[in-house]
Design a protein that fits this description.
It comes from Branchiostoma floridae (Florida lancelet). By secondary structure, the chain is mostly beta strands. It is about 0% helix and about 45% strand. A hairpin with a 5-residue loop joins strand 7 and strand 8.
Length: about 100
């Protein structure tokens, strides 16, 4: 019988201690941490879940914490111009004429 709901139980003199798994806290690792308080999603919306969190990235961003800029120029969106990738988007520099 493990009293540590989301962790590892360590016996000690006359009792026990819990070593909580990531995302959990409390004497028996029963309380979910709200990781979103630390604002881990650099360019996105954080949603807390049991034992962790999910980031939903804003347009132009990707990665586990929405920290990586998407290279929109990779798809050649500026058909007759030059594409310049920037943070979270891109601009087209049109050719003369």
């Amino acid at each position: 019988n493990n009293p540590c709901t989301n962790g590892q139980c360590m016996n000690n003199d006359g009792g026990y201690n819990c070593i909580c798994s990531p995302g959990w806290t409390g004497q028996n690792c029963q309380q979910d941490l709200n990781e979103c308080v630390m604002q881990p999603c650099k360019h996105g919306r954080c949603v807390n879940k049991d034992g962790g969190y999910n980031c939903f990235c804003f347009t132009g961003w990707t990665g586990q914490n929405c920290q990586q800029d998407v290279n929109e120029c990779a798809n050649n969106p500026c058909t007759n111009g030059q594409c310049v990738n920037n943070d979270g988007g891109y601009i087209c520099i049109c050719s003369p004429g």
